[in-house]
Amino acid sequence: MTIAKLIPIIFISVIFCQFNNVEVNLETNRISFEDEQIFENFNYNIENYIKNNNFCPECEDMDIDLNLHFSIQKIVTSGSKKIVYSQLYISNNKDHYFFSRDIIFPYKKNKSMTFNPQTTKSLPSILNYYLYFFVALELDTWGLEWGNAYLNKIDLICDNLATSSYSSGWDDRKENIKKIKSNKEYRELRYLFYHFLENFKDFNKEENDSRILEIFEKIKYQHKKYGYEKNTLKLIQSYPEEFSKLFSAINLTDGIKLLIIFDEENKNIYEKYLR
Questions:
Q1: Is 79 a residue whose pLDDT tops 90?
Q2: Staple partner for 65: which of 93, 103, 196, 273, CB 3.0–4.6 Å?
Q3: Helix (H) or strand (E) holding 177
Q4: Which long-range CB contacts under 8 A does 138-145 form with residues at least 24 apart?
Q5: For position 275, what pLDDT does the model report?
């Protein structure tokens, strides 16, 4: 008699998460103790959604820090639903952050969320919007305008949610995308800066000097065209020492003076490199 042996096959599913270091904070001091109870495990559910889904299947090496702070303003009961009105601050702990006053979503205690890129549910859509946005911004540092496909994804999210029951804030979010996509000089500056920091050892002095001058010209263009352009300012404020060292390396005092004009907050840092 032949004995058939069943060999168990273990299927291992590997999820390449783009957000491994996630911190979620929740502020509920504006609402009642009773309403506060629905947020039991809220932080865990948000973190679990972010960490256990793949928002960029082609981005195996991507690892973005993420900090989210929800400030609950009020809870409105509508039939059997609890509608949450919140503010949200979300940051990559680097050069980009967003603050929204108009985060509105129905929420049920301990209800988990399922990832669906085409969802029109309010809370998952809000999370998808910002997560895709940070993926797009990170891809822009890998290659010039590499983030376009993901900016287009969140553009579609905005269109879908703008006509939903929770449409507040989505026009402003769409405007954020427009500002990034239309400012090609900023995206070039950001790519050049990160690419230089990553690869400067691979270039000779002449090549490095040329790239530093190009970075300076991009900042000068931004200031001339837009004044204190918000996204450029965020980038400079995130790396005051690095920009100072770049310009100081080729004795570009005009570059350091431009940093002072652009970023008064870090004036003391820049002035060290003028001495």
A1: no
A2: 93
A3: helix 170-182
A4: 138/18, 138/59, 138/62, 138/64, 138/92, 139/56, 139/59, 140/187, 140/190, 140/191, 141/190, 141/191, 141/194, 141/195, 143/191, 144/187, 144/188, 144/191, 145/184, 145/187, 145/191
A5: 79
Q: What is the percent of the chain where pLDDT is above 90?
A: 82
Q: Which residues contact 220 (CB under 8 A, 6 or more apart)?
A: 258
CA gap 62, 54 in Å, rounded: 11
Residue 1 confidence (pLDDT) above 50: no
The band of 16, judged by pLDDT with boundaries at 50, 70 and 90, is low
* CA 193/CA 9 separation, integer angstroms: 48
Query: Around 147, how many Cα atoms within 13 Å sit in the side-chain half-sphere?
Result: 25
Separation of alpha carbons 148 and 127, rounded Å: 18
Q: What is the mean pLDDT of residues 227-236?
A: 92
- The residues that bridge with 105 in the sheet, in sequence order, are 84
Enumerate the domain spans of the chain: 22-182, 186-272
The answer to whether 66 and 134 are in contact (CB under 8 A) is yes
Calculate the CA 119 to chain-centre distance: 20
Closest-CA residue to 115 (of 102, 128, 103, 96): 128
Specify the 3-state DSSP secondary structure of 66: strand
Determine contact, residues 83/153, Cβ cutoff 8 Å.
no
Could you give phi then psi for residue 247, rounded to 5 degrees? -70, -35
What is the per-residue pLDDT for 56? 95
DSSP state of 266: G
